[in-house]
Amino acid sequence: MTLRGRGRSAGLRLRRGSRRARIWVLRSVRRILHWWRVSLQFRVVSTTMLLGLIVMVLLMTFLYQRISDGLVDSRTQTAREDAAYRASEIQAKLDSTDQLDPESIRQLAWSLIRQQSSQTPDQTREVILTPAIDNTRGPERVPTMSIGSDATVLPTELRQAIAADPTHQHTQLVSVSRGEGTVPAVIVGQQVLVPQAGRQELYFVFPLDREQDIMTMMLRTFVLGALVLVILVGLIAYLVTRLVVDPVREAAEVAGRLSSGRLNERMRAKGEDDLATLARSFNDMADSLQTQIRQLEDLSRVQQRFVSDVSHELRTPLTTIRMAAEVIHDARADFAAPVSRSTELLLAEVDRFDELLGELLEISRFDAGGAVLDVEEVDLRAVVDRVVAASASLADNKGVRVRVLGADKPYPCDMDPRRVERILRNLLVNAIEHAEGRPVHIELAANADAVGVAVRDFGVGLQPGQAAMVFNRFWRADPSRNRTTGGTGLGLAIALEDARLHHGWLQVWGTPGGGCRFRLTLPRHAGVPIARAPLPLSEDSARAGHTTDAPTEQPPEVTSGPLTGPLTGPLTGPLTGPLTGPLTTRHGPQPDQRTAGAAVADGSGPS
């Protein structure tokens, strides 16, 4: 292999190793962030350890600095005293000599310097003798002499200070070379008078090797002690937080099991501390909720049975009344005009009563969970055509033009055609009723997993907050508005249940004076969940580009059951209407306000 090939191979291995290291670091960071988000115990322990480490670092820094300053101050004071004594001894010997020739003076000076220096392991003392800055007699008489460090370690500031004040000692901390590194040292300097040579500067250098070794050992001890202490603090925090977190986790698990319907789950209550009190209070709350839920379930079953029984029992007398009404209606030509008109009204109200009983029976089947689908593959376009044809006379009477958009291709879908036709008939009749003579648009669309149909009118619309009540039983946006089609007030509620039975979505959007848009979304294939709606719900969504490919949120869960009485609350939801008011609990996002004055209701899906 050539050198170039080897270099490329080494570079490739280096890049791979660097990439693996980056991936490992990123995964570790993500794992730590995940633990931080999901674990209260991890947050408490890691925060405690981090704060403990910060406190230990600050404390170690303070102690290290104080001890270091103390050692340096002590060593400096000792050095000053030792240097003063030895300088006075050197000066005395210089003053007492009677050999004044230059060679003798140099030999004497060298001898004195060598005597005062020390290179023992316990104490190192270096001596430097150099002519003073202002010495004019010439360095040839007594040149610079040193034992240990040379004169290059002498700071200029120290020499200038001695020249300015020659009668006192001067001290300075410097660094001197030791092998491959440096160590701090204390330099004590003063002037001495050498016969025939004039004023000389005498320096004693005291390296702080021993003090540095002491501080290094202390730093290692501090670091090791801090790490051990932080780990112990972390273990203590872990044990302490477990005493608190474990009951909280148990409460969360028990609450989750309660919410899933296992109402007999309870927490373990031990002792008499705050957590035991919390557990007992939680269990008392669970007992109360279990009692109330069972009472509501019993009441719901009783009222479901009551509605079903009443509806069935009224069938027989209603059939008799209908037969009598039809006989009277057939003979209305023999009656006076007021009586004849009364027979027509009687038959119309009997028909409406019959329709109401039928829808009450249908609602009771939904509430009892007895409604089933008769699924077959049907073209949604054909169902829309039948609904439009059946509502043509009503649209003509109202002066409303019904326009179908997107009907240029088939829309096969697994559905119960009878129920889907009932949904669309209710939506279209409702739109014609509230269109105020303006057009009604029906739009069809489909994507890979769903088909959708939207019914849009441009009539009175909905006030903010009304959309959430559109699918309530017997609810009317305007109680003073007269019905012209004989509706029962249960059509949209049944339409919602039919949509949910298909695992589909039925939603409404509206603005005051701008009309409403109902959107029905059905899965294209039975059992396949809907990922996204093929049609936008609101005009704002359409303008924002929320088309068939736009992802949507998961639909909120809606459950219904008949209850009576003015009971409201998070367990039961709003209860309205005698004997048939829905028990509705919504989970998921609440209806939002898309624009000022716009109302959106999620019947069972996202927008």
UniProtKB/TrEMBL annotation:
Residues 242-294 form the HAMP domain. Residues 309-526 form the Histidine kinase domain. Residues 561-585 have a biased composition (Low complexity). CDD domains: HAMP, HisKA. Keywords: ATP-binding, Cell membrane, Kinase, Membrane, Nucleotide-binding, Phosphoprotein, Transferase, Transmembrane, Transmembrane helix, Two-component regulatory system. It is found in: Cell membrane. One of its GO terms (cellular component) is plasma membrane. GO terms for molecular function: ATP binding; phosphorelay sensor kinase activity. It catalyses: ATP + protein L-histidine = ADP + protein N-phospho-L-histidine. This is Sensor histidine kinase MtrB.
